[in-house]
Amino acid sequence: MSSGLPSYTPWQPTLPYGTLQESQEQQALCYFFSEFTAVPQHYSASRGYLEYLLPVYFDAAPQSPLFAALSATALAAFSNRPGRKTLMYNAQKMYLTAVALIQKAVADPIEAKMDTTIVSVLLLGLYETVTCTEHSLPTWGQHVDGAVALVKHRGDDLFKTPLGARIFYWVRAQMVVNQITRCQPVQKLEGIAQGWTGPNDSLEGGAMNLLVVLSMQIPTLRATAKEILQRPMSMDTAAEIVELMYEARRVDREIAAWTFKIPDDWRYTIVGMIQGMENPATAQYYPGPMHSYLDLWAANIWNNYRSNRIFCQMIILNCLERLIPSWERPSTTEYCSTIATLQVLVNDICSSVPFHLGFPDSVYQATESGYPTRDQEHAVDDLELPLHKPDSSTRSKNVVSMGGFFLTWQLFVAFNVVAIPEAQRVWLNGRLRYIGDASGINQATVLADRGLRSLRMGRSLDRARDLNLCDFAPPRDLEWERTGGPIWRQLLRQEGYSEDIGDDGLYD
Fold first, then answer.
1. Does the pLDDT at position 373 exceed 80?
2. The model's pTM
């Protein structure tokens, strides 16, 4: 190792109760494993989140990239707790050490094919999520690219161990999100016979795996939409837009069908209603039902499903906006139904927030223990109590870190839906900021700031939204609206899009 590297002495994995006073590094490690990992809780869950990290950590060599990457990530997460800001300097030193050790491992033919090398790269991606700034936001995607390159290098050997298979699914899930944000198609996976499909890509292999396979079509859809929807309008372009709309509807139907295939215990229940809110920017809950899920992992999968459908529905909406003159949209059933579907998906994400961040006092007060099991639930206003509830004594000060971590991306997707009420958008932005402030997930704060800049651009459906994650619609093409109005219904009929469009644009 070169002399220019920062000094690095990883802490030994002693048990938390081995001493009366643990070092700050040990406290950071315990905090990380407590707040950012989860083991599967139910037979129908094929995996938790980073559940394999603890045994891998204990087996890793003291001077390995994994030790450094985990040290950096744990210190960074712990430094965001009150009174721990000074630990960020140590986290940054460990990060530089981890990068250097990973570079050295990748250059070694043996270490480059070790499971721990890929895990180390993915942990640095988590580090970027915790420490995110506006300038470092793309760095997370670079770490994902590095993990994808290592998966390609491993080839079919990756599936020879249970850990290798879990790493594959973890990399794939993050790769899909990365490609969605970039509007780039998923690249073919060389070196693995089945490509990006894995041996457990079925309902029996886990609801998440099946959903990720379906969502792998979305990056290609978004790449196509970004290219076609920015063109000047013509009859040829309009025909391609109709074809794109067909494809988006097909993918959306496949994802929607996922809900009919999952086990019954994965379905959510309604545990109460929120009536009104005073200040959307600071309100804890959005008016409407509150959902309860099997566990946080199931809630996260449901919100991934909603986010994926939002991307499909926004493409459909953008296609309709380009084809239909603005004055005809309110009377067009397809346009109105698309907006209604988007509203339902966003509302459901809002309804999941109490489960992630803590329910109102009325829910906690309904049981003495505050933590009923599914078999011990009591009735609250004739509704079931949720399985997951943070400790009511600390709920006002701290959110559940993993709940906020899972919600960050999904709240940002919902925020970028252009057709929702402004009060709801302000509330979604406020929840992102709350997660960033209360749990120390800096990415949430950065996304909230980016969302506000997008908001200030003027969020009319007929204006360009360059910072918007979901929306590709360019400024209005007044010439097309003048000449294309009489044409779009005929065009849709010719393409076979619908046989139910009347001469007035309404669906019979």
1. no
2. 0.81
